[in-house]
Amino acid sequence: MELKANAALIIIDQQKGILHPRLGRRNNPQAEERMLELLGHWRRTARPVIHVQHLSRSPDSVFWPQQPGVEFQQRFEPGAGERLIQKQVPDAFCATGLEACLREGQIGQLLIVGVATNNSVESTARTAGNLGFDTWVIEDACFTFDKADFFGNARSAEDVHAMSLGNLHGEYATVVSSDQILAAEAL
Asked: Per the database record, which ranges form the Isochorismatase-like domain (predicted)?
């Protein structure tokens, strides 16, 4: 893979609320560490970073604007010159100006990390792919939670994560690991 000089790193919903215990058991306990490694690399190489913040419409959400869960985790606070996109639905492109921002910056390659794999990450990656962006999802820099399927069968966070990545890979995005991204960059 070739990482473009202006490839954008899109970090989705790294807010305090995502750490709330009521969300249940999750996978990829090292995901934040991988996100921070990528963020550090993006900052060192002066590539664009876009932070996505969810402002829920639902008062019982961990991302409801009237409580601390909506705030960014301190380690994911946007830096100087980094873009902030606020959304009210899972898809970071829906009614946010994200596409216009990318087109204006002539950014065609997107690397997506964050949460939840089967929710905001998947919906954002699907739209990015449908809009023609060269879209990459970094599988070890995303995570999700245990979830029941439509028929009420309990599915582990690992299974939900794997199925979501399977939905994306090859049709909407290319799924890779953070090591693959950083190794390609070192060449």
From this structure: 7-179
In a domain, 1, yes or no: no
The tens digit of pLDDT for each residue in 47-99 reads 999 999 999 999 999 999 989 999 999 999 999 999 999 999 999 999 999 99
Pairing of strands 109-115, 174-176: unpaired
* Residues 52, 76: Cα–Cα separation, whole Å: 10
Q: Angle at the Cα of 25 (from 154 to 63), degrees rounded to 5? A: 110
- How far apart CA 116 and CA 160 sit, in angstroms, is 10
Q: How far apart are CA 143 and CA 26, in angstroms?
A: 7
pTM, to two decimals = 0.97
How many other CB atoms sit within 10 Å of the CB of residue 73? Answer: 13
Shortest CA distance to 178 belongs to which of 17, 60, 32, 46?
32
* Structural domain contains residue 120: yes
Distance (Å, rounded) from C-alpha 134 to C-alpha 128?
Answer: 8
Residue 83 lies in a domain: yes
Terminal Cα distance for the chain, rounded: 10
